[in-house]
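Please, structure for the following, as tokens.
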Amino acid sequence: MSSDCDVIVIGAGAAGIAAAKELSRQGLTHTVIEGSHRIGGRAYSEEVAPGAWFDLGCAWLVGGAVNPFVPIADALGIELGKDKDTMFELENHRFYRNGEPLNEEQRAACVRYYEVSDEAVFAAAEDKRDVAIADVIDLGHEFAPPHVGGLATSWGMDVDLVSTTDSASSVGELGYAVLNGYGNLVAAWGADVPVSLNTRAERIDWSGPGVTVETPKGTIRGRAVLCTVSTGVLASGEITFAPGLPDWKTEAIHNLPMGTENKMGVHFDKDVFGPDGRGHYTTWHDDGDMAKIHACVMGNNIASVFVGGRHGVWLEKQGQQAGHDFAVDRCADIFGNDIRKHVTRSIVTAWESEPWTRGSWACARPGHGHQRTNLKRAIDDRLFFAGEATVYGGQGTCDGAYVSGVETAQEIAVTLGVK
């Protein structure tokens, strides 16, 4: 491969695809390369059973109607759960402790703990105290385990490693589910963008005029490069830069490490949830084993089981069978042991060891909630960066990556002098 273009886009996830589409609108030529065998990045759906799709990565159009993928889905004729978003709100969340639902009084106390903890995080951020969430919430509270575990799934890091500033800046309810998978939605939207697959970037040379990107298929030359890979890939050193990146950029990369949320999709041969059982749950035992569960609101007989942080990484290292067993056990906590005989198949993710991301999403370390700004900042008007790790509000989301790709492409157009 050897080509000349205005912009070389590295990565064909939501940010890279959105950027490519916007660069075309701006009249800039571009080449998109992707190390994996597919587009979509962390938006990826697999069929767990005929006609039943499971999202290994992002699963909800966060924010609902304001999400930019809503009109995209509408235009593509893809069904969304627009009438089911309230099922993910805290007031409709269901809690199980030691295999039993909380009674009304317990549930009220649990929800109040969630609210007080969130208020403490926001207060710390408003006071410009960028500390760990663990420093501002009551970890000894009776209902700390489900909330702390839930935060680990939300951020992919445990609360002693999550910045209050970063957490407080994140906005948006879970929003809409996608009948046949968010990953399939992203793949359909990006299908018209030419992408060189199985083409990893190995070296980015910005020592002379313009930039060159070396790949196993050849060298690409451009006026600028847009890097949309995860901070996990950037920190790994798999892509070398010549000259090396400045200290402020490497500090941003290393202080926005990748968190891990792993998911297990369990398919059943019948509706084991019952007429009123579909929705969002948290289940935990006093001796550990906490998980969040989504009993598919879109009608498929799939339970998505979520676990994050250290526990998520530990479970990943135990292997696929351990993940399957854990997920089935947590479903049995809620729906009873009879569901075990109706399990047909599961899909278990392993995001920490996924070579193209090395985690689920970027999470700012305590004291480093400002680093997303530095990660986004361009270098020498030639090296640009985009992706969920570069945004506030939409960090960790597919729509956040989309917006960052569009905005950075517009910034590149201005920098390169497009009228």
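Residues 2-39+193-257+363-415 form a domain with the FAD/NAD(P)-binding domain fold (CATH 3.50.50.60). The chain has a mean pLDDT of 97.
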